[in-house]
Automatic annotation (TrEMBL), chains A, B:
Stretch forming the signal peptide: none
Pfam families: AHSA1
Coiled coil: none
InterPro entries in the cross-refs: ASHA1/2-like_C, START-like_dom_sf
Protein name, per record: Activator of Hsp90 ATPase 1 family protein
Every Activator of Hsp90 ATPase homologue 1/2-like C-terminal domain range: 22-158
Gene source species: Nitratireductor aquibiodomus RA22
Family listed: Belongs to the AHA1 family.
Amino acid sequence: MSTTIDVAPELENELVLARIIDAPREKIFRAWTDPEILKQWFVPKPWTISKVEMDVRPGGSSLIVMRDPDGNEYPNPGIFLEVVENERIVTTDAFTGAWTPSQKPFMTMILTLEDAGKGRTRYIARALHWNAEDREAHEKMGFHEGWGQCADQLEEIAATL
Amino acid sequence: MSTTIDVAPELENELVLARIIDAPREKIFRAWTDPEILKQWFVPKPWTISKVEMDVRPGGSSLIVMRDPDGNEYPNPGIFLEVVENERIVTTDAFTGAWTPSQKPFMTMILTLEDAGKGRTRYIARALHWNAEDREAHEKMGFHEGWGQCADQLEEIAATL
């Protein structure tokens, strides 16, 4: 199990998930950027991911289709804003391509990976929203539980890489 | 005077300003990216610009403060998403820094500069919005007249560079 650490939000409409993950940041970065690996941990089970397309570079599109246990599919289109190998990934759903506005800008995600020693990583995922309503909706959708479970699933997968 | 050309919007909530400008694209790019030059043409006169700060690179912030004839100031914070020298500039007001969400994402601007021969440039500025309401509001604020007047002012300035 990943270890929860205490990191406060920096911005007004931010949710933050901070963990020490027992895997080096190279493996975590790979699990975030290799579609076949991402599929195995990116949604809380028993949900699954039926499709992943990612063009991992600033301005590159991504599409992640999530599937619930009844087989309903939920496409999540977005774009990469910034990619620094093994260190940092920034994505947003405000665009579906470079630079096509999405139906609604809901959030921007900043992931930072820092070496925490002994092959572990300080893993901080910040979800930034454009207003308080969206932040609250995201929290009620189960941000902390969902992203926390995914962090644990990520740790398990990383151990196999 | 710059020459209006007929270019249709590509996206649903887009406004487009298309001109042939009698200046080479290097000078137009410079007029867009040098704060002291930008100040001289970027708002329709008699409005003025009291302050310009620009970090011209993907993820770099920009702040343009417009001033009306009564002295009221209107700050416009934003960010560069893409910069290709002499060819392409993409900005948005959805972020005020890398990657701080703004108060409200209103538009993304894609400017493309193409060589039109004889030292002229095919100048296309596309304003993309997240919904029809914002596109309509922008049009009513005088998008075509305002951006058109600015294109003429830009042409005049470029002739002096």
